[in-house]
From TrEMBL:
Classification via Pfam families: SnoaL (PF07366)
Domain of life: Bacteria
InterPro entries linked to this entry: Cyclase_SnoaL-like (IPR009959), NTF2-like_dom_sf (IPR032710)
Gene3D superfamilies attached to this UniProt entry: 3.10.450.50
Protein name as catalogued: Ester cyclase
């Protein structure tokens, strides 16, 4: 388990930065014109060759140009768009900028046909949120795991705080546990099935909260995690919710059941909202939760340990309810924590 934890820790370094890497950056069709953003950023680059001119770019242009550099000269991209004094937040504490770059280069070289796709970008002030997915064929060694020949995929959500044309602070969450499983590394295979089996009937929805602004809706919903969670779902989560889970589309009832199980199994449970970023009707919430593991979670008995889970979620709000939800968290680390009993138990 310790070996697995170490691998996961290093992988998080590699994938905290996996916001781009080979070929061309492709963008999904959404309310924002990402292609235009990259084109504008590249025009500025060509007209002002020195990195010192990057401060002329708006935060979203900086993020777009940085991700584009992953598909070209990655080292140059870091030099232009990532501050040497970067504060890098990993799921297991502060990380190092150099390790980030080295790990991404290893990942890039180990995936044949690597492609990263930016699915969405949301910006408010100097913070830019990027939702991304990448994939390729596992043909090289990653974290000591030999080539499997399998096509593997990783999704994530990252936040960059931009100052003077560079990212000075970075957060990222991704489905690292699933990625490790695809690389044929150890992982609890029971997780997905247990989640799918935990369905509950949610209560009737109350009147729409269409008078609330998107951020107010998200704030009220996440506050319900520390109160009546089922009522929070009724009030702020649409019954027609489109829910994107770490293992593919999920069901609203499964989501509620899983979170109620988690809440009931952690003594002193508390969820804290660390940051919220809003653009239009999309709200990004960076959160952390924790408690003492005193009950069964996904079939894993109480360990007696204090455990923590952090994540980044995006909600698309319409008429006072979340109608679409994405979320990424450090689930692999969390599984490792709840699977390790305290000494003497």
């Amino acid at each position: 388990m310790k070996k697995f934890h170490n691998k996961l820790k290093v992988l998080s370094l590699a994938l905290t930065m996996t916001l781009g890497t080979v070929g061309t950056v492709s963008f999904s069709n959404s309310s924002h014109s990402y292609a235009a953003t990259v084109v504008r950023a590249n025009k500025v680059e060509k007209s002002n060759q020195g990195a010192s001119f990057s401060h002329q770019l708006k935060p979203k242009q900086v993020a777009a140009a940085f991700y584009a550099s992953y598909n070209g000269d990655l080292a140059a991209g870091f030099e232009k768009y990532i501050s040497k004094k970067l504060v890098l937040h990993g799921f297991d504490g502060p990380m190092d900028r150099g390790v980030w770059l080295a790990s991404d280069l290893e990942l890039k070289g180990a995936l044949k046909g690597y492609k990263l796709q930016v699915l969405d970008q949301i910006a408010e002030g100097n913070k830019v949120v990027t939702r991304w997915t990448l994939g390729g064929v596992h043909t090289g060694t990653i974290l000591g795991i030999p080539a499997s020949g399998r096509e593997v995929h990783l999704t994530g959500i990252s936040i960059d705080r931009i100052e003077n044309g560079k990212s000075v602070e970075h957060w990222s969450e991704g489905n690292f546990g699933r990625f490790l499983q695809e690389l044929q590394a150890p992982r609890t295979n029971q997780v997905t099935q247990n989640i799918k089996n935990n369905k509950v009937q949610v209560s009737s929805e109350v009147a729409a909260n269409h008078l609330l602004k998107p951020k107010q809706v998200a704030t009220a919903f996440y506050a319900s995690y520390n109160g009546d969670l089922a009522a929070g779902f009724d009030k702020y989560i649409s019954k027609d919710l489109l829910l994107h889970g770490f293992d593919g589309p999920m069901d609203r009832g499964v989501w509620l059941a899983s979170d109620l199980e988690l809440k009931g199994a952690l003594k002193g449970y508390k969820l804290e909202v660390l940051d919220q970023i809003v653009e239009g009707n999309k709200v990004v919430t960076r959160w952390s939760l924790g408690g003492v593991h005193t009950g069964t979670i996904l079939g894993i008995p109480a360990s007696g340990r204090e455990v923590h889970l952090s994540g980044i979620s995006i909600d698309r709000i319409e008429n006072g309810k979340s109608v679409e939800h994405w979320s990424e968290g450090n689930f692999g680390r969390f599984l490792q924590e709840i699977s390790t009993p305290l000494k003497g138990k």
